Amino acid sequence: MHKLLILFLFLIAFSFGNCLAQGLYTAKGYFEESNKTAYQSIKQKQIKGDSLTEEEMTYLSDFELYLANYFQRLPEEEKQKYEATKDQLSREQADKNSQTMADIRQNTYQWRNRDRFNSAFYGIYYGVAFGSIIGLDGTATSGLALVSGGLMLLGPAINPKRYIGISRTTMEAQSKGRFLGLCYGAGLGLALAGTGSETATLNTILGLSSVGSIILGEVGFQYQKRKKIGAGEIALMGHYGTLIPVAGISLLAAGQSTNSSSYGLTIFGAGIGGVLIGRKVSKSYSFTGGDVDAIRSLAWISGAVGITTIASTLENSNDVSTGLILIPAAAAIAGTIFGQQQVKHARLTDQQGSTLILASSGAALVGLGVAVLSGFESSTVIIGLPTAMALLTHQLLLSKFKMKNLKIMSSLNKKDNFKFSVNINPENYLIAKKMGSAGNLNLLAPQVQNPVFNLRLTF
Q1: Cα separations in angstroms, 398 against 234, 326, 388, 405, 437
Q2: Cβ within 8 Å of residue 118, ≥6 positions away
């Protein structure tokens, strides 16, 4: 009875193996093999009469031999099925290729209105700067500026290869690079101009700001295109690259400095330092673009709190110190640092970050409207009420978004993430069968060294 049971199980396994073996060679499988991209590409070159390399000829010969063997191994039923359905399979393949191209077009970067505006603006600025430097009159400078702006907009059409593989963050890096380069170049120009004539100073500032904008814009574009750093890192470098120079200018103003070169050097040096600080901070934690939106908006609101403090002091005191100028900048820096701590583990999305900025701005406008309608004449109230409403809205929304995201991430971590998979490898049975010893008569079936069935359970 025991031997009969073993024989019965063997017959079932053998029949199942034969069924799997028959499924190895199908009409659809032959069609897919004969339409492999590499083979079809070389075959089309041969049909067109193009010369083939020795490697291509070897590949073509080997692959066609493989296809011939594949077709010979097809059961008669599958051969007839292939002849009957190859036209339908070709149409399905064409539809699949069309869908793939549609997906590629859908994933191609679409130019935004912001991109168009930036290209036109900087192109016009460069044209005005160049016209002023070479001494053109107003009409000629205007015409040159329009031509320059138009050429910037024509960039993707003139050199499309340059823009292959770009994304939104690529354009953001270029935009921030252009802006910061313009500011830092202008600062360097102000520092180098010294006490020359107004025209010479203006031309120096225009020239170096244009050069700085072009260089940093291109550096940002190419670096992001190759390295593809996170949107949060780009935004944070831009934020610190703006915040630190503002703080430096406030410090000079508080010290009542009248040296224009000092202001220029501060803009240039503090700007470069700010970018480096932003990069270092972004390496300490992986901020998302939404996180940085929340940080920036809190910094702006904190700066407004500082301005409210100045307004209150001016209203209530006749002895005003120039040191008050430092308060908004210091408050903005404090808001930035506090915001960085607040958004940790929040993982705000771009939509949540932009909603924070939009809602805070809306609340500020509502507060300003209430102050105007109420007839308040105090500058402290006119500035402070919108600021208070913006801050309250910002904190409420940030708390809501953070709790929502933490809840989602917590539920994902608690989910039972086990996976069960089954891999069937019938070719292992056939290989083992061919490799079996002819004299091994005591075995009912060949020994399978590589399993036919692979069961995997992962947690």
Answers
A1: 21, 27, 15, 11, 72
A2: 171, 175, 178
pLDDT of residue 399: 94
| pTM for this model (two decimals) | 0.68
Integer Cα distance of 299 and 333 in angstroms: 7
266: CB partners within 8 A, 6+ apart:
187, 245, 248, 249, 251, 252
Spatial neighbors of 257 by CB under 8 A, at least 6 apart, are 263
Model confidence over 239-282: pLDDT tens digits?
999 999 999 999 999 988 888 899 999 999 999 999 999 999 99
* End-to-end Cα separation, the chain, in angstroms: 41
Instruction: Give the C-alpha separation, 83 to 105, whole Å.
Output: 34
Quickly tell me which residue has 């944070």 as its tokens: 236
User: 160-181, pLDDT tens digit by residue?
Assistant: 999 988 988 999 999 999 999 9
Residue 21 pLDDT exceeds 80: no
Structure tokens at 457: 């359970």
CA 445/CA 436 separation, integer angstroms: 9
Best CA proximity match to 382, nearest among 296, 307, 299: 307
Dihedral angle over CA of 257, 258, 259, 265, nearest 10: 50
